[in-house]
Structure formats: C-alpha cells, structure tokens
What does this fold into?
Amino acid sequence: MLNELGVKSIEELLTVIPEGLRFKRPLNLPKPHQSEFELKTHVEKLLSKNRTCKEYLNFLGGGCWQHYVPAVVDEIIHRAEFVTAYAGNTYSDLGKWQTFFEFQSMMGELLDMEAVSLPTFDWASAAGFAVRMASRISGRNELLIPRTISPERLSVIENFCQSKSVAGHITIKSADYDHRTGLLSIEDLKDKISQRTAAVYFENPSYLGFIESQGEAIAQVAHKNGAECIVGVDPISLGILEPPANYGADIVCGEIQPLGIHMNYGGGTGGFIATRDEAKYISEYPTQLVSITDTVRGEGFGFGYCTHDRTLYAVREKGKDFTGTTVGLWTIAAAVYLALMGPNGIKEMGEEIIQRSHYAAKLLSEIDGVKIHFTPHFFKEFIVDFGETSRTVREVNKSLLKHGILGGKDITAEFSELGESALYCVTEIHTKEDLERLASSLGETIR
Amino acid sequence: MNRRPELRRYHAHIWDEPIVMQMGQKGERGIILAEVEDAIKRTVGEAPSYVPRNMQRKEQPGLPEISQPHVLRHYLRLSQETLGMALNIDIGMGTCTMKYSPQVSEELVRLPGFAELHPYQDEETVQGILEIIYHFARFMSEISGMHEFTFQPGGGAHGIYTNVCMIRKYHETNGELDRNEMISTLFSHPADAACPATAGFKIITLYPDPETGLPNIEALKAAVSRHTAGFMVTNPEDTGIFNPSINEFVDIIHEVGGLCGYDQANSNALFGIARAKEAGFDMCHFNIHKAFSSPHGCMGPACGAVGVAEALSEYLPVPIVTYDGSRYHLDYHRPNSIGKVRAFLGNIETVVRAYAWIMSMGSEGLRQVSETAIINTNYLIRKISDVPGVSMAYPKQKIRLDQVRFSLEKLKEDTGVGTDDVARRIVDFGVQEYFTSHHPWVVPEPFLPEPCDTYSKEDIDYWVNIIRRISEEAYKNPEITRTAPHNLRKHKREN
It folds into this structure.
C-alpha cells in the first residue's frame, strides 16, 4: 500500500503534523496480553473481585433496580447485527428502525401518551430535557420540584437548567412535603407557583417509594398558573398505577432500565420522554422521533426521523438543545421486553412487586425499633428507619454485608429529617425466603 | 473459476414483518412470572389495596399479546434486516470509526461480575470494577496527556456538554461572569456548537478557507474578546485534514483568558502520534464507542470520556475513582465539582471493553492502529482518484488522516445522480450506506468515508469498486442509481 502511495514509510504521511505537536516517546502502557485467552483471564480475574447481586441478596434501588431479564431479551440484544450497527438509514437498517418504532408504540400504550421519543442517557437527563422543553413552550424560566427528589437526579437537572450566571437560566425552587406521608405540600406549591413558573415536576412512584396520590391536584395548580406538568415515572409500575397522562401530565419522562436491562453497574439506564401529539410539544423535543411512512412503490413501509430539522444535525447551535449517540441497544431491549410481557404480564408484575415489597416492609416493621415511613401507599421501594435502634444505617449495612446482604441505600445524608433511614428496594426477584432472611439478619444485627 | 467476483451479489433479508402491535392474539403471552407465595398473599392481601383508588390504572395498556417463540422470531428477523458493522465493509460512515469490536469483550461485559452489579454497592464489594475504571483513567491520561478523567457522559455530545459546563464553572469561580461566547469551527461536529448553546453560550463559527479547508486564524483573532469563554474544536476536522496551527489557535484563546476543549471524536489516527496536552488543550473528550472499540449498539450505550488538565480536575463530575495504595474508592467530596451529568458512573460497559482493548493492544499496538488508519485513508484516496465524477475536497491538501471528504458535484452536474442517490445505491452491493456529511454542505454533494484500522487492502479495493461501478452506471443509465435501492425489500421511501 505504501508503494501505491509512492512513499517509503508512514513518516512521510505524518509530515502533516508539525514536529512541535508530535508525541515523541512511546505511550507508557502495560505490556499487552495479545492472546485472547490471556486477556480474557486477566479481565475475568479482575471482575471476580466483585461481589455480585447474584451472590449477595440485594435491596439497593434508587434509580437502578434489579429485575429479572428474560432470556429472549438477551438473545436479541446479543445479535451482532444489532450490537454493531450504528447510524444506517431505513434502507440498510430497516429492522433497527422498525424496532425503534415499535418501542415508541408500545411505550405509548403503556404511558397512554401519543408521542414517545427514542431515549436519552437516563431518567435524569430525560427530566432535564423535559424541563427545557417546558421552558421553551411556556416562555418562562422557573421550575418547581418536590424536596423528595433524588439529590443526584436533581444535580443532573440543575446542569441542564444552565448556570445561575446565565441570563435566562431556569431557576429551581423546591416545594416542601408532608413528613408523615411524603406527599407534596399543595399549600407550599400554591405559595411558590407564579406566572414565572414554566413547569411543576414530580415523580410517581417517588424516589422515596411513596405513591404521589395528588397528581390531579398538582396538575391543576400547574395548569391554573399556565405551567406545564411534568411527571417522572418508573414504567414497571404502570400495569397497576395510573399513567400520569390520565391525571394531567403534559410531559412524561422516566427510566427504561427496569424493562429488561441488566444493571451493568449503573450502565443500563435510558431515559424516555413522551407527550401528546401536538405541534407545540413535537417541535420542542431535542431527542429523535421515528415515524413510519409509505414507500414510493407502495409496498411495505419505511421509517424516518420526524421533524429532523429541529435537531443539531440539521441546524447546529440553532437546534433544540442537543442529541447524539444515546442508548439504541437498550431501546431494543425494552421493546422486546414489552412484547414479551404484554398487558397481563405488566399488570401481574405491578401486583407482584407491591405484594412482595409490602410483605418485606411488614416483616421489618415487626423488628423492635424499626419503623417504616410513608405507608401504606408505596411501590417497590420504602424507607426503613433505624432511629429507634442503637445502630446507624452505616453499621446496619456493614453487618448485613457479613450476612451476604446488600442493605438499602443509606439516605441519612440526603434526607437528614428522616433520621437513620435507608431506602429498601424489593422486586419480583425477591422470594419469601429471601425476605425472611433479610428480616432475620436485620433482627440479629440490631439486637 | 472466478472465486473472487469483482462485486458480490447481495440481497438483503426480506421478512415482511408486521408491526408488533398487529401480532399475536388475546390470551397469548411471552413470559410467565413467578407466582407470589400463598403466605405472602395471605399476609398482605390484594395488591390494589396499597394503591389509592384514584391512582389505580383503569384500563389495561394496549400492548400486544404474543407467545415467546413469535416474539423471538419477530426480533430475530428484524435483526437480520439490520446491516451491522460485523457483517459488512463499513467504510462509509466517516466520523463514526466503524471498527471491529473484539467479540471477547462482549463475553466479558455479559459476566455477572459486571452485569449484575448495582452502582450503589459498598466499595468493598466492587473493588474489581473500580480497579478497571481507575486504570482505564490512567491509560486515558497517558493517551491524551490530560490529568484526570470521568466516564459519566453518555455519548460524545454529552461529553462536550460536560466540558462546557466545566468551562462555565471555571470562569464563574474566577468571577468572570460575562464570558459568554464560545468559538467553534464549521468542520467540527455540530455538537461543538449545539452543546455550548444549550449551556447558554453565544456561538461564533469559523468557516473553512476555500483553498485549504482549514479555519482562518485571522477570523479567530477577530472573534476573540474579553467575552470569549472557550474554543471547542475537532482536529483533524471532519475532513480528515489536520490543522497544523492548532497550537496557535489555542494560544490565541488562552491569551484572552479562554479555555480550549478538544473534541477527539477523530482520534483514531492520533494514538501515540499527537496528544491534546502538547497542543495546549485544557480538556478533551474521546468517544469510547468509536476509536476505543466499544460497539456502536444501534446508537449506544456510548461514552464520552472527558479528560481535563490538573487545574480543572476539581470541576469534574462526581464521583471520581481514587486509589489509596491498597483500596479503590469513590470520591464524592469534591466541593467545586459541577455535580452530576448523568446517574451513577456512566456506561461502564464501554469502559470494560475499552480497558480490555487497550490491554490487548499496548503502546505499539495503538500506534499501529493509527498508522494503519492513515495508510488506509490515503490508499483509498489514491484508488478512488480516477473514478469519474468523484473529487476530493480541498485537493491542495494532499494527505488525510482518519477520513476524507469527497464531492460528487461533477457526477451530479453530468448525470443528475447526487450523493443521496449513491448512498442508497451502495447498499445494493452489501455494504452499509455512507455518511454524506453534517450540514451545512459547504462541500457540495459530499461523502465521507473512514477506512479505519479494521479494514484490509482488499476491503478498501472492494469498496472503491462499488463507487466505480455506480459512477459508470450513472453515466450510462442514471435511472438505476436514482431509483435505488434495488436489492432491499424497502424501496426508496416517500419524504
């Protein structure tokens, strides 16, 4: 090839990079494992230092949840065709486009919303984009969020709302909550909402697990003041919980990881955005929307991006925020998962999670000094307060580790008003035996 | 017997799959859940009693009801109707670095030792994955010269957004609240303009010189002021042309107090050859799903690995993985951090794969990757040079690095066949369509191949032969290309 190019060595091609910019020594990297066997052994050895949620009994949630992943989902997302495709159009990658369209369609059914975009990075980013959409739609720049939101998610949203030094940035105001039930204080919301409010954002189920039952009242307050109502939702709950669109949500966002995606140390996330099919919403999406269309020969169908002209690909900085490579493979996983579950599977899933998580809460509440907050209306996650025991959450979790149990997420720093509390997550994977083991280990730990 | 046909006969899978919503029938289902134990049911009673009445779902979702074999069959067929990189000579997707993703990495990320980890697990239980992240950050520091890295951003654009958020924070910390202008170049990725705009910056775009294709340094001098916050640029730009004066651009920005962010989406030709540090950059990002071999996954999961110089590392998102000589830790206590840009630590599966890739390549291997990519690009230029109707943009610049932008302006003038037509037509020969280029098309009727290190001389010859065949066809019978594709089920869509 060098002969064809008429050069003697690579150095002649590198002359386009001036000497002063050239890196002068070899990179200092470890000696490589050139054989696949050695490489695999090396990485396997490192990964074997981890203790997994298969070996340990896991009660961590808080935005990444351990659910069962059906074998068919993994089979499909391991297909090299899907793993290695990228940005091909409807001609070469028809199957990818159809799967994306089907994801949107099934999510639309689950959410009772007409338009669903391809997901962005995670729930937090989806919420951030949704808030920016609402700000553009309303021409306003204040956001009201209940104090019960995950502080980490709030931090992501803050980064989407621009810095306080930017003229026109979105100001975030926190609305208080009822410390007995977790529910948003409607009074405080009414006090803080104004003609500057672009949107009210809340979640169902909330980060702290309780079901926000005042959805309709919150949406009414938002709408009465000309603000958009944005609701974040865990879609695995929607077989049994009412979709937010039916209590007044204008924009719905949330996390697809529970829909058939492994936790991957937090790398299994993807955040969807959904709205009604109205121009004022569609024209403000930063993320891609896939549409179905006819072909020129009138047979079959093709797919394309809807209103592509609003994205950075068409108009650079004049586009709506930004998009790019996000989570295509997880989009496919979620589509396959929903097709497998169907309406009955998703309903049973919701019921099962409620029964198992409430059983766990009941067992734990019977331990001396242990208190469960925000009962009886919670889904999947609940707060266990160790304040009346002699142990801190940190101590409890260290002891549970010795029992092969990953205790709930320590939220003492995030919500100091809830005392020595941890957020426990129970899903369909936790058997009666698992929950009883947790209770007995906790009992021993606290005694 | 001719064992190697000049061009392969190819036909895409045709399955005529219905949309999933039209499949199945009432009562079918794809998966059965474990039954809740009777003791649990007896103790807690019916699930709906724990949901306030007004919050109970009233109508079941209209999801399809489909048996498991039919779901599997449907999505297997849809996978077959997708032309993944692993199946073809995917040279056409410039800026995307469609390189081979070693299959062994797929096995590694599917192990429970990674896939079944929760991001909030106690540090003691995740020492293995923290060790991988920590060492991968050190590798990235060596490759770029930057001091510290985060892998939190979920893609290249997200990495750029993270960088501009840190630029903002840096100026705020210095009390310079009126630095609200960001400069980029037209041949940098559009996200280098869109992401700072999202963060609230005013964008100034430097246009390419019509002769050299490079941004004009005089235009930069005219653009900078006390309002300049920073400069976000790709180099080589999305033309494959390396800006030899990049350090002078950086100096001009530094002189007025701005910071420089290097979009290293096009890093595949630079391993061990040139680094962000030597050019004076303050920060950079790499696309781990491109040059670092993590697969593209139908548009992700991805990773925009962000690296910064020492003076800026306090602004990185939390947490950062640290090492105390015996244990690895997650450091959340970074008071000047911009906070979080995404949940948890990012798409760490991409980090595991890229760690494995670097551990298999080593220093010499990485250098060889880039040398091969450069030779491949210039070989492709050479081979395609006599194809009628095709010309290289900015021909006075002879050498390209990772990719090369061509124009089909002459083909269009002579035959009416334009670049969108050819992009559809090449799929008829069993290769993925090519990427024309980002907008606006300052190079008319563009296309942008990137024959990265994965591809052999034979692969490149094959790909060029397709372009040659289509050119001949366009001059003889342009209708064939205009009505393409022909060997795929789905004919040209209506717009």
